[in-house]
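Hi everyone,

Forwarding the result from last night's run.
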Amino acid sequence: MRKTRLLAALLLLLLLTFPLWGSAYFVGRIFTPALFFGIIALSLSLLAGYGGMVSLAQMTLAGLAGYGYGYLTITLGQPWWIGILAGLAVATLAALVFGLIAVRSTGIYFLMITVALGMVAYALANQNRSIFGGHTGILGIRAPELFGHSLVERTIFYYLCLAVGLATYGFVRYLAGTPFGLALQALRDDPRRLCTLGYNVALHRVAAFTLSGFLAGIGGLLLVWYNGAISPTTIDLTRLINILVIAVIGGLAYAEGAFLGALVFVLVTNFASSFTQRFNTMIGLTFLAIVLFSPEGLSGIALRLWSLLRRTLLTRVAPSRHTGL
């Protein structure tokens, strides 16, 4: 436990000091997007890893938060804090509606219903001009300004995304140990037994979906500030699948996997295009390789390597102690 905490503290120190020694490109174009994509993927990890519900609507919920913020601040000219509240409210309410529709299904049927709901939202955004701006979307979206500095300035935005990412990660890890989180894991493993114990399975699923929508909305706000615009291409089918790919690459069962998968996804997306035009093929090959060699994703590989390292250290320390005796 002491070594695990030491490793976590070292990783946190590296992340906190990264803008001081890392290149501007990696700070602004690699790690910052990895953080807010990781938050969106974390909402899927909460649903799938803890609740057993694989959803493809998480990017839709994130995009709706961006639309809510853009409509309030650009179209209606409201202050940024009202836009934030509206964006989170839109994402949370949409997740509640999606959950009420899909909650009675499981497995592949649940997955396909969330895909259908995501495509309905995409078609609505693409055709509606009064609210969503049609195919063009909403342009000129600006992030809030505090003390004369925009929150999307490279270093400031990195630390903002890092703080929000750590907060959402800590919240999900805390939630896993609460009665609700334990019931959610029991729902994943055996919903019938949970029902016989007197729990309302449907209500827990709807609550989990609604909560995941709130987390996805947080990531969606950071995404729309980063891009400065929101359009239907943000929530098309490719982007919906990308979030699932990120979560699976990192490991659906691990909250850490959301951010690890997002980092790998952003790295492959940015650097694969420099030596091939088929960077989506590279992402697919990366996805297949990780799934074939480690169904638990990169988090599973990291845990196995960490266990191997600990056993190696223990076997080296034990003989030395025995010799000293």
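Residues 29-237 form one domain.

Cheers,
N.
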